[in-house]
Amino acid sequence: MMDINADIKVEKKKIYKKVLRVFLIGGLLLLGLLGYGVYWAFFDMNRLPTGEFLTEETSPDGTYTLKAYDTNGGATTAYAVRGELVFNEKSNKRKNIYWNYRQETADISWTDNDTVIINGHTLDVPNDKFDWRNN
């Protein structure tokens, strides 16, 4: 003879596990979306203000041009310098690679075709970035 109470306990455990799994997956998705939202709003270099043009320097082989812009955050923040790498051979694709706070000038020099020094920070382009918020 089957024990009805044992069957009910097994069914309750299955339901409990399903509900727990749904809450865990939902919580992880919500946490992931929240994390991405914070990154997008506060740390994504593609959302930096454009600023006023300061200077530019082209790499020795002409592959890249680094353009520097002075950005004014308003009355409550200091000036910052934004460095934008332009890919001269890829239909002028642009990528922000430098962002430093409390600066108003940009000293740019290329040491070779893929290495640039901006205000004392050495970057291997196109992959390196300098963002004062992450250092």
Tell me about this structure.
This protein is an alpha+beta fold. The chain folds into two domains: 1-42; 49-134, no CATH class. Helix content is 29%, strand content 36%. It is built from one helix and eight strands. It has one helix at 4-42; strands at residues 52-58, 64-72, 79-87, 93-101, 108-112, 115-118, 121-124, 130-131. A hairpin with a 5-residue loop joins strand 3 and strand 4 (93-101).
User: Which outline best applies?
Assistant: elongated
User: Could you tell me the radius of gyration in angstroms?
Assistant: 26 Å
Distance between the termini: 70 Å
**Percent in helix:** 25-40%
Question: What is the count of structural domains?
Answer: 2
Proportion of beta-strand residues: 35-45%
**Contiguous uncertain segments of 5+ residues:** none
- Counting DSSP H or I runs of 4 or more residues, the number of helices is 1
Order of helices and strands: HEEEEEEEE
Give me the side-by-side strand order of the main sheet: 1-2-3-4-8
Number of strands: 8
- Main sheet overview: 5 strands, mixed
